[in-house]
Amino acid sequence: MIGRWALEFRAELFKTVRQRVSILLFLAPILMAALTPPLLLLGHELQGIQGKEALLPGGFEALAVSVRAGLLLAIMAAGIVSAAAVSGEASRGTLRSILARPIRRREWLLGKASLLFALTAILVVGVWAIGAASSSLTFGLGDIRDRLYPDYTHLRAGEMWGYVLKVALMTLGPLWAVVAIGLLVSVWTDQPMVAVGLTMGIVLIGGPFLGSILEGLRPYLIFAYIGHWMESLQEVAGGGLAAAEEIRITAVKIVAPITVVAAALGVGLVVFEKRDIT
Questions:
Q1: pTM for this structure?
Q2: Which of 39, 197, 243, 265 is the most buried (most CB within 10 A)?
Q3: Residue 223 contacts residue 173 (beta carbons within 8 Å)
Q4: How distant, in Å, are the alpha carbons of 110, 112, 139, 229, 248 from that of 190?
């Protein structure tokens, strides 16, 4: 089974590489992370020209803003590509011929899911790496010093990188959850646009709505709550060390998205096995 799974992974990889739309969707978040720090610097310069007083953001603040923008696009890209993964094949009429081969449906879907999980992991690493490189070139990524008293250091650069690493690790799970939900929706319908709409509704609307009702569980129910961690990272980078309390890797923050991934993928496999494809 593992051998066939690997073959399907490779086949889906080659197919994805040939699909320009998918490649562009995954490149957009990285491009956003690269462009945000220069745009922040440009905005600061324009405010100076207009005579407005504005503090120049630090490098780690720019990193938090750029990665947050990139990850928002990453959530959308992951949701769109995963939601169209199966429904797109069905709408093009290629799903029947694919499943006519001597391969189990489960193996084919797991191969596609594995590729999407791998691409999402690469995307997250790319957004953080490019965002860090761009922020470093634009502002520098040094010690966090007080803006009024530059001789006073809030945090050393090494300590700040520790917070960055924690947030980076916490952002991967929710994105994998988005992929799993997209695949679950995708196996239910032959219409890619319907699948994409439902997935985006669940992730960007359903999550926040549920989080507003269950306030105590809000950090773990909203996939877009990645933004909360990014805001905390930005506050810490600006010298607000109180926000560091929010940047903690806890069991819930790790287990919750993994549970969503396992549940959504498991249900998706069962539904796909029983689906009538004619």
A1: 0.85
A2: 265
A3: no
A4: 19, 17, 48, 36, 41
